[in-house]
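Exercise: predict the fold of this chain.
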Amino acid sequence: MADSLERSTTAVLLAAGSGSRLGLGPKALLPFRGRTLVEVLAGVLLDGGCRGVVVVLGAEAGRVAETADLTRHTVIRNPEWQDGMGGSFRAGVAAAPTGDHVLVALVDQPGLTPQTVTRLLAAHRPGRVTSAAYRGPGGSLRRGHPLLLDATLRAQAAESATGDAGARLFLQAHPDLIDLVDCTDQSGGDDLDTPDQLRLLE
């Protein structure tokens, strides 16, 4: 078996939510840089060094698939998306090629850059979880996304995903496995959840 550092990394882009708090329909279809948000972020993941992207759709999946150009990517649908992120997380990890590391990203983080992705890939160590982290007002690092799961850990992390918890329960149970990588110079790591945060799309 190839050494962990020689493995490829597949990105899983979670884009199944309805955007109910934002009130503008699925976040995946928000206009961003002349395209849809899901298109741009999937491209960012490729540009950053992932060998492929699995896009997990849910709410209005048909409309998203018809509107966004996702032909370069693997698109899957989570029919149980309303049960929370956990199902989409499990489905996305399962769809990634066996043996690959998995980098999990969220469609509501327009600040994601190829440089952040490249930095995480370069920092990853065998058997570890590599997480983007961002400095808050007090200067301390807080864990955020993307999150790179080692190939040897992805199944265990997926098994723990339930409800609205993706990898959270797994990470809480194994804090000793997490390496934080400061990406504050690239973005604030903010999620796009409420109307006042639409400024993140500017």
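Check your answer against the key: Confidence is low (pLDDT under 50) at residues 1-5.
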